[in-house]
UniProtKB/TrEMBL annotation:
It comes from Stutzerimonas xanthomarina DSM 18231. This is Cobalt-zinc-cadmium efflux system protein. It is found in: Membrane. Keywords: Ion transport, Membrane, Transmembrane, Transmembrane helix, Transport, Zinc, Zinc transport. Residues 17-208 form the Cation efflux protein transmembrane domain. One of its GO terms (molecular function) is zinc ion transmembrane transporter activity. It comes from the Bacteria.
Length: 306
């Protein structure tokens, strides 16, 4: 039942992403038409920005589907890290968008451009509604997925850009305050870059097989050494196979060498590691007096290391 529930949840998530891709693609076409009818280059430029949001959602969706593929002879840990790669791609493009916004803002500071009438404000308002709808579709999923969060941030940046166009356009049309467009653009760019640069180190850390956030090797060793018949633990390596999937390998020096005792200690260690540190895959090399490695694989060919 849990497996079926997981499939249902994934299917719902995919449908949300497909819906978000559909509305963003439709919005892009509407902005292009609005830009041509109003003669506004800014609307067409915003359409290209929105197209990048749709592309980020497509990347996220493809990565989710690839990530579900089971392990095989080429990818023995599976394909879940594809979502992390997708997150990296989307974060890098998000940073590029932020830098581009700064470039545009500086250009407008020296050469202010008037808003091309109410058509721009109306289309920006429609864009904002679509952006909010897309954010609602992906917000829940973004809490537990670095991949979806990166795509979600793309959409949030576009929503803020739409708000900026509406506010700046209204102020310019009413009071001729062209400088508001530049100020709001810089604020949006600052937010985009802050979000992008704050998530980028976490993504790279995962790809570099770094230790999970908040996990201390010292704490792991201390907990493992408290298990009955464990003398000491060394050569400990812990890393994230993918987001929310932690692996560990270690050498464990034990007091007893009988196969039943070895298996009991190993079972206790795996249970403790899973309960206290959420380790989903652990490989333990058992040693006697720190000098002899005990290989139990032949004695129990069906034992799982996971």
């Amino acid at each position: 039942m849990a497996h079926e529930h997981n499939h249902n949840t994934e299917a719902i998530g995919d449908k949300r992403l497909i819906a978000a891709i559909g509305v963003n693609t439709a919005l892009t076409l509407a902005q292009v038409v609005g830009g041509i009818l109003s003669g506004s280059l800014s609307l067409i430029a915003d359409a290209l920005h929105n197209l990048s949001d749709a592309a980020s959602l497509v990347i996220a969706l493809i990565a989710r589907k690839i990530g579900r593929k089971p392990p095989d002879a080429f990818k023995t840990f599976g394909y879940r890290r594809s979502e992390t790669i997708a997150a990296l791609i989307n974060l890098v493009t998000l940073i590029i968008v932020g830098l581009y916004l700064i470039y545009e803002a500086i250009g407008r500071f020296f050469a202010p451009q008037p808003i091309e009438g109410w058509t721009v404000v109306v289309v920006a308002g429609i864009a904002l509604i679509v952006d909010i709808a897309t954010a609602l579709l992906t917000y829940t999923m973004s809490k537990d997925s670095m991949n979806i969060k990166a795509a979600f941030l793309h959409n949030v940046s576009d929503a803020l850009a739409s708000v900026g166009v509406i506010i700046a356009g209204t102020l310019i049309l009413l009071y001729g305050w062209y400088w508001t467009d530049t100020v709001l653009t810089l604020m949006i760019a600052g937010y985009v870059l802050w979000q992008g640069f704050s998530m980028l180190p976490k993504t790279i850390h995962l790809l570099m097989e770094g230790a999970p956030e908040g996990v201390s090797i010292t704490d792991i060793i201390n907990v493992m050494e408290q298990v009955e018949d464990v003398m000491s633990v060394h050569h400990v390596h812990v890393w994230e196979i993918a987001e929310h999937s932690t692996a560990l390998e270690a050498h464990v020096v034990i007091k007893k060498a009988s196969l039943p005792d070895i298996e009991r200690v190993k079972t206790d260690l795996k249970r403790v590691l899973h309960e206290q540190f959420e380790v989903s895959h652990s490989t333990l090399e058992m040693e006697l007096d720190g000098s002899v490695c005990i290989d139990t694989r032949q004695a129990d060919s069906h034992r799982s290391e996971a």
